[in-house]
């Protein structure tokens, strides 16, 4: 997968060299480049923002550098992702969908965001998605790109050694995962649940499912409503 990130703070994306994302890049699974938006400015101050039409606090990113960045980097296969607290919620389902794209381009807004015409113009030439991490406000889109890319990269073929971990994890089947334990069997007076040491894999699977549902009901009742009921048929 090809990924281009455009930002006025390329250093913010330095963690993409590390750990499993760095490994996916080194292996060629992820062909990622980070670009400085100011590459596409032409004035001596390398201006990227200006005051908002209609008034109000803060600054808005001017369209010209973004237009040139898109002209330089985007093609017919491009899916433009714009992180924004005004976007649609990012989820594991979004990550699965993005993992099937061949070219993602991230436009990191700062200040009060990017001139809307950039998104409208791009939408006439490519797929454009505004995504939000949740109901809170960040300084800019850079950290959201780290989050989205981490969620997507681990779904790319060959990145995770053990594909089973994708099946068992939280959100894979719409519920939170059950608690996990390792050695030692007793620690500071707390014992690992007996059933996990029983060797009865059917019982263990049922116990984990119960724990997962109980946790989800307590912590994320909103997810329970979205579960398919086995008695409802197909
Ligand atoms: Cl994706 N971007 C920004 N700037 N703030 C956010 C966000 C994204 N998601 C939640 N808050």
UniProtKB/TrEMBL annotation:
The keyword DNA-binding does not apply. It comes from the Bacteria. InterPro entries: Alpha/beta_knot_MTases, tRNA_m1G_MeTrfase_C_sf, tRNA_m1G_MeTrfase_TrmD, tRNA_m1G_MTases_N, tRNA_MeTrfase_TRMD/TRM10. It catalyses: guanosine(37) in tRNA + S-adenosyl-L-methionine = N(1)-methylguanosine(37) in tRNA + S-adenosyl-L-homocysteine + H(+). Its main location: cytoplasm. The keyword S-adenosyl-L-methionine applies. Its EC number is 2.1.1.228. GO terms for biological process: methylation. It is found in: Cytoplasm. Pfam families: tRNA_m1G_MT. GO terms for molecular function: tRNA (guanine(37)-N1)-methyltransferase activity. Keywords: Cytoplasm, Methyltransferase, S-adenosyl-L-methionine, Transferase, tRNA processing. HAMAP family: TrmD (MF_00605). Belongs to the RNA methyltransferase TrmD family. Homodimer. NCBIfam families: PRK00026.1, trmD. This is tRNA (guanine-N(1)-)-methyltransferase.
């Amino acid at each position: 997968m090809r990924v281009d990130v455009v930002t006025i703070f390329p250093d913010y994306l330095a963690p993409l060299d590390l750990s499993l994302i760095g490994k996916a890049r080194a292996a060629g699974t992820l062909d990622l480049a980070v670009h400085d938006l100011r590459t596409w400015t032409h004035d001596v101050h390398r201006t990227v923002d200006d005051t908002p039409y209609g008034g109000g606090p803060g600054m808005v990113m001017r369209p010209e550098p973004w237009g040139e960045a898109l002209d330089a980097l985007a093609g017919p296969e491009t899916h433009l992702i714009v992180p924004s607290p005004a976007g649609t919620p990012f989820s594991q389902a979004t990550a699965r969908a993005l993992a099937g794209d061949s070219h993602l381009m991230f436009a990191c807004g700062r200040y009060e965001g990017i001139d809307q015409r950039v998104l409208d113009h791009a939408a006439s030439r490519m797929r454009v998605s505004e995504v939000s991490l949740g109901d809170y406000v960040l300084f800019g889109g850079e950290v959201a790109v780290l989050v989205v890319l981490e969620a997507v990269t681990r779904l790319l073929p060959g990145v995770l050694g053990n594909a089973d971990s994708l099946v068992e994890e939280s959100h894979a089947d719409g519920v939170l995962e059950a608690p996990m334990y390792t050695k030692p069997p007793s620690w500071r007076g707390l014992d690992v649940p007996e059933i996990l040491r029983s060797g009865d894999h059917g019982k263990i699977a049922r116990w984990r499912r119960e724990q997962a549902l109980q946790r989800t009901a307590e912590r994320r009742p909103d997810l329970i409503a979205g579960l398919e009921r086995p008695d409802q048929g197909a």
